[in-house]
Hints:
- This protein has 147 residues and is of the alpha/beta class.
- Helices cover 39% and strands 18% of the residues.
- Helix 6 (125-134) links the parallel strand 5 (115-119) and strand 6.
- The model has no long low-confidence stretch (mean pLDDT 86).
Amino acid sequence: MKINIINSNQVNNLNKYIKKDYFNMAIGGNYEINKKILDNKKINLLLDPEPLSRDFMKYYDSGLNQVLIKLAKKNNIGIGFTLERLIKLNKLEKVKLFGKIMQNIMICNKYKVNIYIVSFSDKNINDLNSLGISLNAKKINIIQEAI
């Protein structure tokens, strides 16, 4: 499978960077970027939709809500996260990001949106599958690609 990764700074000209016959992944970030990505039917996967910015007082800003998840379901776009992003963070940031990921997994399970775990290293596929199960992901898809 050929993979095309579109950065969050390329989202404004999304159609320019989409490649035909590729699995197109776009890296999210905040609500506006995620909405632009999920509006496009040619994208296959929204990767890392969770912003690393400050959260609200009562809840995590996970980058997704029911409106965006319904849009993802309608356009058949999966939601995914990368392990490499987690590795770079300190312990407190990892805890916050895991909370956001778990929140996104819960809403994906509710609306039956595909969940992807993407690894660009040589992690064991059973370990990735176990991680998805421990995060309560019902439909786990694993993409393991070496760059």
